[in-house]
Amino acid sequence: MAMPTSRESFQGGVFHASIPGGRSGATLSIARGELIADTIGEPSMRFSIPLNQCQIDLGGASGRMVFCRTKDGSLTIFCEERNFAKELDFQSGGALAAPLKQLKKGLAADANRFRFWLAISALACALLLFVGYFGVLWTAKTAIRALPVSVDEKIGSMAFSGMEMGRKLDANHPASRLVQEIVDKLKPHAAIPDLKFKVTVVEDADINAFALPGGQIVVFTGLIKEAKSAEQIAGVLAHEMSHATLRHGIERVSQSLGIVAAIQIMVGDVGGLVALGAQVAQTSILTSYSRASETEADLEGARMLNAAKIDPKAMADFFEMLKEKMGDLPDAMAWISTHPQHETRVQNIQNHEKKLPVIQYEPLLLDLKAAQDAL
Amino acid sequence: MTSNLQHEIQMRPDFSMLKVSLEQGQKVHAEPSAMAAMTPNMKLKAGLKGGALKSLGRLMGGESMIVNTFTAENGPGEILFAPGHLGDTQHYRLTGGTLYLQRGAYMANSDGVEISGKWQGAKGFFSGEGLVLLKASGVGDVFFNSYGAILEVDVTDDYLVDTGYIVAFEDTLQYSVSVLPGLRGGGFKRLFFSGEGLVCRFAGQGKVWVQTRYVVPYLSWIDRFRPTSSK
User: Fold this and answer.
1) Cβ distance of B172 and A23 shorter than 8 Å
2) Which CATH number is correct for A10-106, 3.40.50.2300, 2.30.29.30, 2.30.29.220, 2.40.128.10?
3) For B191-220, what is each residue's pLDDT tens digit?
4) Contact A6, A29 (CB under 8 A)
């Protein structure tokens, strides 16, 4: 029977008493049914074991070394290469299948164990990243609440001076005076008592008003013109003042700046935060709050109105009016467009109002007509 | 390729010193600060041999990442290496296989030999001897040192060695770390208070080098004679 000859040679070794030291590295090959080892070094010695006399054993430091021994144990040829076992199996025509199968099983178990630990470590890494990321964000949010309000004020005034707006009305203008009087009335009931509210009326047809961090409030003439009552203006102002007292602006800064700002806040780099905040303000992100923040401001606004003996219903009324106007005033809807769904808002405000202390509301004794005429 | 280093290990075993004689252009690699004396024509070059991963492996195996390379220039040269502590130095000729070395046992090698780390996993963790063994492989000469003298043991079947006394072993030996058989079942108390405990069980055919002293018991013995501070 013609025996196949291996095309490959393998790096392995030999144990035999005739070798100095008893052991040598060798180049292995399989030919004519024999496992042949040629020792490395001078002079090279040749050893061979007929495959049908091979006694296969596994071992070595790695547990993957294949040992092929003669029956009397005087000669051992070994190899650790992966393909060696396969070649040995092939050349022996399956005679060595049983011990080699055991080797394969061992290798598979090793691979499985490796995959298991790989998965575990990947999972641990992901968890660590996840916890780390949200941990930092959460800590930053908490840290922001601990920042002095003066930081809000700095960001607010920097943003205000950097904004492009229409002509600012004089403080003595009837419209400015009207808005100022409402703010004065609401101010004592603000959640942050010593916040310096500063209100500016700006010539702009949009029905819009916004609050910057620290109490800078801007009201557009368009809003004053469309208001049906001074109470409605009070409603909008209470809402905007609430954004300032609830510190939504600075929260927004931290959100839009992400993890870098969060870390900056945590290490106490307030100066860097103010500069970044002012930059963000230029892109008007400061005045577009999240839906949750808007709802929060609605409810806080209603509380302020109630405390100032102004009917919070006026705030709901104003939204309702805006909703009706939406059809024929598409480009004047700036204020609305950034705000949540009206029906829910109105509903929310009305529900919240029921929970507020029942008091006798007093009408605002302000001349809205005169202010509107002066515009 | 099979550069044979002409060498002589002197003053054995306590204060051994390795003398290597190099032909012109021949190289020897050694751990930093091992060089004790040399002829002036030896040129020193320090570097991370075998790349970042192999260097990291050496670091984990209790060695320096840096390996110094000495080359004999303009004629033959001679160099003397000394281990950092008392003890013997052993030569081993690699012929394509691998020799595993205990943490810190590596001293020098010829061209053709690569020194790297071998992750042992749980085996290393429980042996108390570090997670990584050093691995010398290739074709060439490697020199390692011990604390105390070195005993060469020819293992033909099973053999147990306390983990603290292993210096090196051949790749043909299967090894596993276990509690000394007599202690098994004796509970933790015996394991921790008997002073005996973890052993390496070698199986198969190959050589193990065992050192005649282990530094930890020596330190606890000498500790009793230390003068106590009068503060």
Assistant:
1) yes
2) 2.30.29.30
3) 555 555 678 889 999 999 999 998 888 888
4) yes
